[in-house]
Amino acid sequence: MRLTAKKLSELTSVPAANIRKWRERYSILNPQRGENGYLYYTSEDYRVVLSINKLLAQGNKLAGIMHLGRAKLLEIAPQANHTSDETHFLERVIEGNFSSISHEYDEYLQTHSAESLVQKKIHPHTILVGRAWESGYITVATEHAFSRWVMGYLSQLALRFTRKKGGDRLFIAFPGDQHELGAMMHYVLMASQGLGGKFCGALPFDRLFEELSHGDYEELHVSATIPKSREEIDKFVVSVHKKYPHLKIKIGGTGAKTAGSR
C-alpha cells in the first residue's frame, strides 16, 4: 500500500501537519520515497496512525504514546487476520483504487455469470469490508467510500441486461433500513435473469406508498439487513396489502432470516 500524506490524512482524519510532525520528531512513521520524490506511507504506517488516534481518544498523552515505539503501536493496532488476497483487496479499498477492483470484476464477468460475480466476489468483499470496519482496520469514511462505489458499479451492471416482458417489480430496502447494498445485489441478480424492474433503495413508508401509487407494480421485493422480527415483517406486509391487496411481496436478506424469509 502506498499512501501520500494527504491520503493518509483523509483516511485517518489526522491533519497532515501532525503526520509530518510524528514522522520528523518521533521517527514513528517510516514512509518510502518514490522515484518522483514523494514520500509514500505503508500499510504499517496506516495502522500505526490508527493506534495513535485510538490512544489519543482514550486520553493518553502524545509523548507517552510515542514512547511505546513503533513495534508496540503495531502490536496493539487493529489486526488484519486476513488472507493475503483479502489484505490485498482491503489495501486497494483503503487506497481508493476502485478502478483496479472494477477491472477485476469485469475480467471475472468474461468467464462467469453475473450471479457468480455477485455471490462469489461482490458479496464476500462487502462482508470483508464491513468486518474490517467493525474491527477498526478501516475507517468509517473508507467503508462508506467502498459502499458508494460498489452501489454505482452494481447499478451500471444491471443496465447491461435486457428485461423480459412481464409484470413490473419494485426493489427496495426494508423501510427504516438504510443499508441498500443487499437490495441492490438482489436487484442485479433478478435483472441478470431478465426479471428486473425499478430500484428505489431505502424508502420511508410514505414515499413507498407514493411510488406504488404511481406505478403498475405486480411485485415488491424487499431486502432487510437489520434483523427484523416476524411481527415487524407481518406488520409491514399487512400495511402494504391494505392499500395494494394484489401486490406480491417478497422479503429476504440477512435481516429477515431470523424471522424466516417469505
Keywords:
single chain; Multidrug-efflux Transporter Regulator, Chain: A, Domain 2; Methyltransferase, Methionine Synthase (B12-binding Domains), Chain A, domain 1; two-stranded antiparallel ribbon; 13 helices
**How big is the Rg?**
23 Å
CATH-assigned homologous superfamily of the largest domain: Cobalamin-binding domain
Q: Which CATH class of the largest domain applies here?
A: Alpha Beta
Strand order of the largest sheet: 4-3-5-6
Counting structural domains, the number is 3
**Oligomeric organization of the protein chains:** single chain
Mean pLDDT: 91
Tell me the total number of β-strands: 6
Q: What class would the helix/strand composition place it in?
A: alpha/beta
Structure characterization notes:
The protein is an alpha/beta fold and 262 residues long. It has three domains: 5-76, Orthogonal Bundle (Multidrug-efflux Transporter Regulator, Chain: A, Domain 2); 84-158, Methyltransferase, Methionine Synthase (B12-binding Domains), Chain A, domain 1 (Orthogonal Bundle); 168-257, Rossmann fold. The protein has 13 helices and six strands. The strands form two sheets. Strands 4-3-5-6 form a four-stranded parallel β-sheet. A two-stranded antiparallel ribbon has the order 1-2. Strand 1 and strand 2 form a beta hairpin. The model has no long low-confidence stretch (mean pLDDT 91).
Give me a quick take on this structure.
The protein is an alpha/beta fold and 262 residues long. The protein has helices at 5-12, 16-26, 43-57, 62-68, 70-76, 84-95, 98-109, 114-135, 140-158, 181-192, 205-214, 230-243, 254-257, and strands at residues 32-33, 39-40, 168-173, 198-202, 217-223, 248-252.
